[in-house]
Amino acid sequence: MAASAAHAQAPGIDQATLEEPNQKMREVSTAELKRTLANKTAVVLDARPYREFAMSHVPGAQNVAPKPGIAISMYVSDVKEVERLVDGDKSKRLSEELLAAGFMNVRRYQLGIPVWRALGGLTEIELEGVQHVFQSDRTAVFLDARSAEEFRAGTLSGARNIPQSAVEPGKDVGEVRKAKDDGRLPMEDHNTRIIVFGRDAIQARGLAEAIAREAFHNVAYFPGPFDALRTTAK
Prior knowledge:
This protein starts with a helix and ends with a helix. It folds into two domains: about 1-120, 3-Layer(aba) Sandwich (Oxidized Rhodanese, domain 1); about 125-230, Oxidized Rhodanese, domain 1 (3-Layer(aba) Sandwich), CATH 3.40.250.10. Strand 3 (about 80-85), helix 5 (about 90-100) and strand 4 form a beta-alpha-beta unit. It is globular. The protein has helices at about 1-10, 10-15, 30-40, 50-55, 90-100, 110-120, 125-135, 150-155, 175-180, 200-210, 225-230, and strands spanning about 40-45, 60-65, 80-85, 105-110, 125, 140-145, 160, 195, 220. By secondary structure, it is of the alpha/beta class.
């Protein structure tokens, strides 16, 4: 219900922040973060443990989970702005370390991955995350964005095919509409985990964007080549 409401009210919610008092740095809204990612105007960091990051993260984010003896300032350029992606004390501590290292324009996105997804934001999944889901989550849906011919020649066990080349602009149209009607998409539960993969990142992301437009709230795409999945997700 909350996710559906978020989609319905997205224009207003996109601008929301937590507005915590006495902050040393400015928060960014979901809309601002989307612009940052589109324009590539800042280094975007995710300070969660790597396993959480591998399962689902904002596209293009770098994982900077604390590692012994490595300062967080070693991960980032001293030219671009820096944005943080997680909330809580860990984010505050790492942000303060960046400020102490001389990075003056540090901003924080505190709403978290669940809100990001609820507002239509895409997430990427790392190879380790795909392996974990493939082996452990029997409810997950894997979507192959390659052509029907490539799909028939070999895919992941249990994967369903929605060719990205057949996807049309807009909502509830074309191949995506057919997939909703014929069971390739999990219409009974829009919170089902959906993993999209393809020949490459562009193909996988194209289909993932189309699926997310249909109010599926847990969509991630694998940005690597299909060959990487074929040799590891068994």
